[in-house]
Design brief:
By secondary structure, the protein is mainly α. The protein has helices at about 5-15, 45-75, 85-95, 155-175, 235-250, 265-275; strands spanning about 120-130, 135-145, 205-210. It contains 6 helices and 3 strands. Helix 1 runs parallel beside helix 2 (about 45-75) and helix 2 (about 45-75) crosses helix 3 (about 85-95). The protein is elongated and about 95 Å long. It starts with a helix and ends in a 10-residue tail after the last helix.
């Protein structure tokens, strides 16, 4: 789903089992393995999958506990030092010889009380350049500060934040859904419907994850916070920046009246809002 689920789940397994991340493999996701899992929504999928993985790992660790204790005791008796991974491998071999089940199923299905489990906080600043003759906008720079608690994976989370921001740019600036009088969708392809592309992304894009702000909400996973959809609201910074640019253009044109700049502020609406007329093009 683009939330870095495989990477984060593998990290949790590596942490819980004390196994190198390179030894963790993720398989195909299918209802054959779990027929009644929770829906992928509200940016919570990564957290739920990671919580289920931790639950599964805890079951295996519980089965391996007496074997690990025996391995550690023997290493102390022999005055040898073993890494956590070495202890795990020896314990697995011993448990396998005793025909102990070394597979498990984890389950996580948190029930949220109220409208939300916790809040994610973020702020954003955007600098834009508006061509008042065409209505075209260039995103010059973007700065985002985001609170994702104790992030599970900074690289994945930053990708989620910046991806959510770019998705929101389309929502606020270009992706207009248009219907004709009979209710038929007109903007049904990229000729009429304009999502943002890679060429529209600002070359100066700075994202900072807030540090030392653990998620203390009940039921949070490892004190982290979601980073899928919440960053989309940061894109409103670009809309407000465009509005400021339109306001400046109207001031230059001597227009003092208030104006509306609806969402999405498309090329046409931006051009019209600038209030240009033929007299302004005379030398």
């Amino acid at each position: 789903m683009g939330q870095g689920i495989d990477t984060k789940v593998a990290q949790v397994a590596s942490m819980a089992l004390c196994v190198p991340l390179s030894h963790i493999l993720t398989g195909e996701k299918s209802s054959n393995s779990q027929p009644n899992c929770m829906a992928t929504l509200a940016s919570a999928t990564s957290e739920i999958c990671c919580a289920a993985m931790l639950d599964a790992c805890n079951i295996i660790n519980e089965r391996l506990a007496p074997y690990k204790a025996d391995v550690i005791k023997k290493s102390k008796d022999n005055e040898t030092q073993l890494s956590d991974y070495d202890v795990f491998i020896k314990a697995v071999r011993a448990a396998d010889q005793d025909r102990v089940c070394l597979s498990s199923e984890g389950w996580a299905a948190p029930k949220v009380e109220g409208s939300s489990q916790y809040f994610a906080f973020c702020s954003a600043a955007a600098e834009v350049e508006l061509d008042i003759l065409t209505g075209c906008v260039e995103i010059r720079s973007v700065d985002i500060a985001y609170d994702c608690g104790h992030q599970l994976n900074a690289c994945v989370d930053i990708g989620q934040i910046e991806g959510g921001f770019v998705m929101g740019l389309g929502y606020f600036l270009s992706e207009d859904v248009i219907f004709d009088s009979s209710g038929r969708l007109i903007s049904k392809n990229t000729y009429d419907y304009k999502p943002f592309s890679s060429m529209d992304i600002s070359s100066k894009f700075n994202t900072r994850l807030m540090q030392n702000f653990p998620n203390t909400a009940k039921g949070s996973f490892l004190r982290s916070k979601a980073t899928g959809e919440p960053p989309l609201v940061c894109s409103s910074a670009a809309h407000f920046a465009v509005r400021d640019a339109v306001h400046a253009a109207r001031e230059d044109a001597g227009i003092d009246e208030d104006f509306d700049l609806a969402t999405p502020a498309t090329v046409e609406s931006r051009h019209i809002a600038c209030g240009l007329n033929s007299h302004q093009f005379q030398l």
